[in-house]
Request: fold
Amino acid sequence: MLDQKDNLLSSYNYDLPDHLISQSPAEPRHDAKLMIVNDGLDDSLNIKHSKIWNLKDVLNKGDLLVVNNTRVLKARLKIRLSGGGLGELLLMEPRKDGQWLCLGRPARRMRRGDELWLNTSQDNFLCLKVIDKDENTGGRIIQFPSKFASRTEMVNLLDLCGEVPLPPYIDKNTSIEHEEKYQTRFASKPGAIAAPTAGLHLSDELIAILKNRGIRIVQITLHVGLGTFRPLEKEDLSKLHLHSEWVEVTEEAIREIVNCKEEGGKVFAVGTTSVRALEAACLSGRGTLKPFEGKVNLVIKPGFKFCVIDGLLTNFHLPKSSLLLLVSALIGRERMLKLYENAIANKYRFFSYGDAMLITPDSVKESKKSG
Reply:
């Protein structure tokens, strides 16, 4: 049964000491801490403190990990403003004919019709044009030259001129060091502006051992954008809307998931983005998991009925974020907050490069019974 507080943004707040915000991933990646969340119906936390490396012993032969294979674009561009001075564009998503939705800074100096200049090499500048303001996001529609309507050409341009758009809590002075650190081992499809961070924990060594032990891994795509990382602002969550993100769930992925369930295995989503992609595909099939390609703005919060995943590997997320709502939908908001208190007390590292939590099928099952 839903609590009234489940629909209030302030109910998803917590205090985090700054020193627990991780500035770099564990080395090796599988050395990060792992909080394993088990059956908590008796009001006990019932957790185990472990390491990511021990996933090989926690998961069973026949289980399936669903990972997000999106790759983070070098989507932050430094530009010159038409009236002089420097600015910045963060590319959010492609629109038609070489146009992109961008967050601009300083936005007040990016008016309709203004020209912006991107330095592509010594004394060589590319002219961009501000087409309009996007009322839904406050961003700007930016026109790139027609050549860059090609996705390949655009990715090449960003690789040449752009920077990885690190989260604001990570030191920007070391951005070059993060170009590969901030990519998962599955990152093959460029399109995200933030990493699917739970996947950062899976090292090549751990992946090999998991596969050798009969734990399968299948890939889906969700290009992480505003819908995942933009802070929530309205206190009333009952009519929450999220910005759309592009998703692809292939027939091969569906086949692996169906086979896993038919053979008695459990489906674990690696990251909240994998959850949203899978559950959206199921909803589009009216309760049947079917291949899906398109935009998704699915809101998952307490009261949501899951139809695909059995468990979740996820990081520790920012206060008042849509990601906390999703985790609360699985295990309950009050229990989630208690688990976060325990993580802070045990000095877990938080956010993109932080440690992780494994929500087991037993925990999800019992949460559904009690909710």
